[in-house]
Amino acid sequence: MQQGAEEQQNPLGRFEVLVLQMEDGQRKIVHDAYGFVKSAESRPMALAESTAERDRSWFTFLTRLGMDNLAGNIDTLKTNEGDKGNKDRQEFSRLVKLGIPVAFRQQIWLALASRSEKTIKLSSREFNANVSRARTELPSEVIKCIRNDLDRTFPGHSMFSSSSGLLNLECVLITFAFEHRSIRYCQGLNMYAGQFLQFLTPHDSLEMLRHFVTGILPETYFDNSMRGRMIDGLVIEHLIRDEMPTVHGKFEELDFDVAIATGAWFSQCFTGCFSDMELVFRVFDLLLWFGNIVVFRLAMSIVRKNEYRIIAAKSAKELYELFVKMALDVNTGDIREAAEYKLRTSAMEAMRDKIMGRKTDALEVEVERLRARYKAKVEEALGDDGGEDV
Amino acid sequence: MSGSVRHFKLVLLGDTAVGKSCLVVRFVRDEFFEFQEPTIGAAFLTQSVQLDSSVVKFEIWDTAGQERYRSLAPMYYRGASAAIVVFDLSNKESYNGAKSWVKELMRRGDPNVVIALAGNKADLPASQRKVETEEAQAYAEENNILYLETSAKNASNVKNLFVEIAKKLPQQAMQQEREQGFTISPPKQEKKSCC
Predict the structure, then answer these.
(1) Distance (Å) from the C-alpha of residue B97 to the closest C-alpha of chain A?
(2) Transmembrane stretches, by residue range (chain B) (predicted)?
(3) A319 closest CA partner among A237, A257, A236
(4) ipTM value
């Protein structure tokens, strides 16, 4: 059996163990609760709120739902009909917006990515077989490319300083590459895989990676053409132009490209942009339940919150730096707020939808419309040579 | 210390893992990390160099190296006054990659862009070297661009690289040409399954 494919024992128990101090020459290395090296710039304020009440609500809800076979129960939550189904979904949505407690996150994430407990044990053998197969059948240049990035993934993180941690990362990435011909390996996928591996087994991390890349995010973020990124860059700019014309005017005045400034927000779902890993995991909580639209809500909400700072900028340089700072300033409260983000210009549409009895979200509708519109534009610019995605 | 202050946009291009980010981190913060995270998309940093009678402030775009990110590169080199094209002296393929970047810049970049070719990882033992100084030097002369061999690891020639570029930049900070809106004009890329 591949060493890297071993199931990890009690992955959640690790959090406590990783809070340790080591002497590394002159420098003291302190790992945070997620195993990352704590930097001097850590901003504890981002997580200052108390979660006791939230955790109680989660506990009550999950107990009512049934703690045994939690994964299965959450799975059925997705499709349950009738009043009870709706009520449960509403409460679940409310709770997800508050953030999933660390203690339940693993199970709930897997359930949301459609992994019921039943299938885990069965396919873990298959997973090992797939890893071996990928290792022998994947083109060697792809493997080389992946190996190139292994020890550059979360350097300093306690997990990826060990050879077994790196091997797990390799297993996930090569198996994913083997399964997804049109994507193979794209730099950035290592970050997603690395994040999942922090509290999921390699097998579950692969499932989660698959779910994120081909289920939640546009696949064209990661394929050879990367057209999805170009499209969404144009979409966010358009949304800002419609919603905050003064802000957009500033962008034009200073020749500032908001698609560039927000690129990592979209392609990495804020990984590496926020001041604390928990904040990124909060975004992932939302993504798994509400979908890709969450990133747009957050991006728009961050820009709106900083409208005045943006308008006061004097140069493009200042704006690029400000956008980095704006993301670093995000705290848990901002994420909760962003989950409720509504278009200012959506009043009419909301009314229309109400009359028609539709339950749609104006931002979602608008993003879909704009994506379709800019897809054509980007494809035209690419000379329809953009890639061979399915 | 005095004189005029000029601002210039500078972009780093080159294959994956040749040391683009390491060069920038060495130049901007004078640090070096053995395991530098791959750049996703691009990173923005600033740093100045002091010349005899003026200060040049660089606004630096450090880009991702993987082949498929190449389609996004024009977003970053658009309007750049200077470009550093980096390759790894111990990796011949990356040298070929660098040459294609130089070609692309000459064809599609700003007509006056100052290009420097940087052979990085010069600290590695001679036995690992795959690109000879003479070869790269000759190529650079032929194309009228700068060539320096650098080591982000031991800092050799890193500051010098930026100083040499600063010296070649125009005395008046150029009014960057403004293009309206967002242009998407990626180059035709070779089809490769990976990087």
Answers:
(1) 15
(2) none
(3) A257
(4) 0.86
